[in-house]
Amino acid sequence: MLAPLLLGLGLGALSCPARAQQSPDPAAGNSGDFRRWLVHVDVANVFTNESADVTVGGAPVPGGSVSMADNATVTFDASYFLTPHFAVNAYAGYPPRAHLKGAGPLAAFGTLTSANYGPLTVSGEYHFSGLGAFRPYVGVGVTYAVFLNVDDEALSDVSVDNAFGPALKLGMDYDVSERWTAHAYVQQVWLKTDVSATAGGAPASARVTIDPTIVGVGLGYRF
């Protein structure tokens, strides 16, 4: 009678780790399957923090700067989870149309140039767990900003350089089902670009700081 009892206890002890390994991970959904992909679609607003150092004819323009209006857009991103906590994220958005206007002594010139712009960001993310359906995360990466459809306005022969800059993202997912999440995020990008043009026949250039803060809300899907 003792031998079967000891055998049963031994099998029970061996089965405990196996059951622990098979228990659902908080980031994996109720099924216990590890879902490596999480995609988001968000409606976002881009708040720019612009300034510029402007030179015309080789001489700096004291107090000369630029201004840009904030833009609404739609952003998309996809995270691939290497572990339940660490993920690699690719982020992009529909390029909004921006109008770069003169500021300070350049305000009289109105709109200097117009262009579409969009960030392409690759980040490493850490996703926190242990908070139930609430899943905050933080991401650090690099952004490549692309400027498209650059049009002359008050300036002629305008060229805007694409540019790199660091990015920091804070976000959260709230599970509304096993696969669907409500999503919100704030992303800060530190970005400078060089603009060259002709102003009244004289060469002009500007080192433009944009530093956009992007705030978005939307939905996520795990698979």
Describe the structure.
The longest helix has 21 residues, at 2-22. This protein is mainly beta and 223 residues long. Strands 1-5-6-8-9-11-12-15 form an eight-stranded antiparallel beta barrel. The two termini are 50 Å apart. It has one helix spanning 2-22; strands at residues 37-47, 51-56, 59-60, 65-67, 71-81, 86-93, 97-103, 111-127, 134-152, 156-160, 163-175, 180-189, 192-199, 202-209, 213-222.
Query: How much β-strand is present in the residues?
Result: over 45%
Tally of DSSP helical segments: 1
Oligomer: single chain
By secondary-structure content and strand pairing, the structural class works out as mainly beta
Order of helices and strands: HEEEEEEEEEEEEEEE
The residue fraction in helices comes out at: under 10%
Distance between the termini: 50 Å
Outline type: elongated
Q: How many strands appear in the DSSP assignment? A: 15
Rounded radius of gyration (Å)? 25 Å
Widest sheet: strand order? 1-5-6-8-9-11-12-15
Overall average residue pLDDT: 88
Point out poorly predicted stretches: 1-26
Largest sheet: 8 strands, antiparallel, barrel
